[in-house]
Amino acid sequence: MLSVISDNKDKPVAEGSVSRISTWIIAALRNEQFFSLTSPNREIRKKLEEYNNRPFAAKEGSRSELFRDEELPLLAPLPATPYELASWKKAKVQFNYHITVDFMHYSCPYGFIGKEVDVRVTDSVIEIFYQQNRIASHKRLRGRRGQYSTIPDHMPENHQHYQEWNGDRFRQWARTIGTNTYKVVEAILTSKAVEEQAYLTCRSLLKLADTYSPGRLEEACCKACQFSKSPSYKSVKNILTAMSTIDSRTADHSSADLTAAPQSRYGITRGAAYYGGKDHAE
Questions:
Q1: Tell me, what's the pLDDT at 116?
Q2: pTM flag (> 0.85)
Q3: Where exactly are the structural domains of the chain?
């Protein structure tokens, strides 16, 4: 509380000094003409130095001497880098030892797989912390979504992947579904500079068999391979969605045909029997 009171007492003194300095400099330069911004700034600096070097009226020394002897030794150096605004987020380290921030993927040391981490996000840097210790730092990715920033030191030794998730496991899983599914998985695995970057996509692709059935997934992969030499997860997913839509429409038409079956060869006509006559069907 005492420091607050002291600050409040000093504030009018500081504001009064600023007012006196401004008035003195403006008065000194009022008759000068300038034709660029650098010229008045240069003259203002000269006048400011002159004002600070003037002796005090009621005590010894000057403002410059007071700053040099009492304030300058207490000043801390400025930060080496400019201050950046930052936001904090939570993320979970995936089985491919990457986290996802704003649709981009950043690696962590593989020993942190499954851990929840804190992420400091600035305009230029992504910093990853676990229990207040920084475990990774990346230059922030820009542009196309889905890019990877992978530090080689974060990888398991000799590419022996944590918890048995590796390319061979995905290939074996794909073979149990079908030849075309295997071709798509192989294309995805070889599309990345680092194979681990494709693991999430392969896992998402193969899990489609749980939603659409293995046979459907194999059929969709077959069509995707016909359309492109490098089929992607997105193309297979779109084909499955289109196939489901066609099946739904076909089922609706079949149901409508059953309910709309005519009761006689005359369609909606009532026939002669309705009017007391004999119907031709008799």
A1: 97
A2: no
A3: 19-74, 87-159, 166-259
